[in-house]
Amino acid sequence: MNTQPTPSVLVVDDDPAQRSLFASFLEGQGVLVQSAANGEEALAAISRQTPALLISDVRMPGMTGLELLSKAREAVPGLPVLLVTAYADIRDAVDAMQSGAVNYLEKPIELDELLKQVQRFTAIPGPVASEVPALPEGIIAENEEMRRVLRDAALVAPSDSRVLITGESGVGKEVLADLIHAWSPRAGKPLVKVNCAAIPETLLESELFGHEKGSFTGASQLRIGRFEEADGGTMLLDEIAEMAPALQAKLLRVTQSGAFNRVGSNQERSADVRILAATHRDLEQEVAAGRFREDLYYRLNVIELHVPALRARQEDIVPLAQQFLQKFGPGQARFSPQALALLEAYAWPGNVRELRNAMERAALLARGPVILPEHLPSRVREQEDPTPAAPAAESSDGVKRMEDIEREAILTALREHGYNRTETAKALGISRRALTYKLRAYREQGHEVDRA
Questions:
Q1: Tens digit of pLDDT for each residue in 286-296?
Q2: Contact yes or no for 65/91 (Cβ under 8 A)
Q3: For residues 306, 307, 309 and 312, what is the CA-based torsion angle, rounded to 10 degrees?
Q4: What Cα–Cα distance (Å) separates residue 311 from each residue in 246, 354, 358, 374?
Q5: For residues 13 and 21, what is the distance between their CA atoms, to the nearest angstrom?
Q6: DSSP reduced 3-state for 284
Q7: What is the model's pLDDT at position 313?
Q8: Three-class SS of residue 33?
Q9: Mean pLDDT throughout 410-425?
Q10: Predicted structure pTM score
């Protein structure tokens, strides 16, 4: 007699990283999870134990998610099915809903949206409180949006899922990758970093996969590639958008099977490597322009973490500046009130990297322990208005702040498009990812961002 508890959720996906992400996240929320790699395994699992909810990828080899939906509902009439896909195909969405799917979610998955759907069909009353783990010395996150990114990173770190880290240059994408590795079960193994923009296209393949002696001019000895070095650990592919299309195809093969060949060798090798990718570009636009493979984009983007620009992290500017000053200046160094006002008012287009460089410069130029405006770079000093904006919702004459106007415009567009985020983002001329982060913040502020 089978005494195993009935799983609350059955997750079906041919991608092990996706299954790992769902399992680690939902189990952390108190949900019992069972996994299957294809439709046949899923139907066998359903015949043994009926789950409270079936979550299935749409596009899988062999039996598709839509076919599994039909067969599962034949076996268990009324079984709730949530379909997930990396391909935003409205025809599949319509077919799914007409066939009885309870909802249809796009990859990369938004974890809070996933949890909201799971809560409808399981006994968990609400999300388990998730705190940011203890941060290493030097990591500052007073800003709530930044803390939310760190919380999401902590949630996905225990899985083997691939993560795409986006954000402007200098925001700290590499630092976030360091944290994900440190919080993961792979922390005792190597974290190997490769900057795809810093290595010539002709050498990048050899850098990643290695080469045999004599495989090309200058290959005077055997070289072990970075994937072999990272076996059992994590690899960060920084500036992934700069990778040439031919090499993108070979990287796709690694993400699918872990298999690769050294340059000049027919022997297939494999490595167990968790891949983190980072870019300052909008990969959706790169895909649309034909510069980045769509299939690779979806393979890398199991979960996306967007690091906000420093100008959006107003609370972090001064603590970061003080930390850098303590590193580069005398022990009791401090800022004058005028210098602080300049730091808070400046937009920091170069983000944390620019702030660090500015503080190193200030520490070198200051003759005493006080940092004055003249010690700051000219672009910081020569602002039209060095007075930080007041935090009030309205100015004294009742004029609305720009962020209030922006919020009203976004929420109005959302309602006009029936809460369809893809269509709303197109109408507003922004990426769906950017809209998602805006709506998440509005939800926490108490605004209605989901269809009732």
A1: 999 999 999 99
A2: no
A3: 90
A4: 37, 12, 15, 22
A5: 11
A6: helix
A7: 93
A8: strand
A9: 84
A10: 0.80
